[in-house]
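One example copied in:
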Amino acid sequence: MVADKGINTADNIAFCLARGDGYVLSQTIRGGSKEIKDYVLNSEGYTEAGDGYKIKSRLYPREIAVSNAQGGRTKLRVDEKHVVFYSADYDRKAKADRAPALQKARDLVKSPSRYNKATSYGAAKYLKNLCFDPTTGEIVTTKQKPFFDEDKLREEEKFDGYYAIVTSEWQKSATEIVDIYRGLWRIEEAFKVTKSDLEARPVYLSRHDHIQAHFLICFVALVIARLLAQGLGNKYTIAKLVESLNKASGSRLEENWYVFDHADEITRAVSSTLGIDLSRKYLSLGDIKKILGASKKALFCNN
């Protein structure tokens, strides 16, 4: 089972182990114990594994409290491996994601009358002395005024860029565990692409058979996109592949002749890897049909 920290509970872990299955789960750091926080921030044991990336791991047997048939909890020992890594890119993303909330929080301190309980969402956790009228939801400043909580921000920033994973697969290397977990990201990306780039949602259909056909087409397109991504060494995201190939379309000139006026790194990679010539600017309808046939054969034979 590969999942994010929302599934990381004692009962779920025990269920996996009882079935003879393993698990690779993300582990909260900011909401974790002091022991896990200290381990993450301790510089000892990290191995530099690229520009702005470091990783370490440890074997860490622990006891978990599992629900039992009597309504109580039973302690169970699990042999786990902890994998922690730091990514400079992840660090920058965390700060960028937090920036709008910080800007709102600082603006609220200057002009509290512009906000209420609903509009202060996201910024409230960075403020102290923030009180709301229980009836109107307006911010009350008669007795005390809200101020920015610098300590809260400093505490959060300490863990920017760090990610933790716990797993039953203690025999595998830290790099293998991270690669397994990244498979979850690829699945999430695939669902995102299906909804947006492949236009699975919204569905402007009412008949059941039409709805089924719509999703069948979307998932077939997703399979092809995933096969193409793998064929190109997972160098490009599915979203970028879809964007590039949508642009690589032909415009009819006259009779059976078409002009193709788009080429980029991805179309050149497709041509090189799959042996399909996408470099020609002018193609006849017969040439296009030959390329489509060759692309189907190349894509599925190479995968």
About this structure: DSSP finds nine helices and 13 strands in the chain. Residues 196-303 form one domain. The longest strand covers residues 53-59.
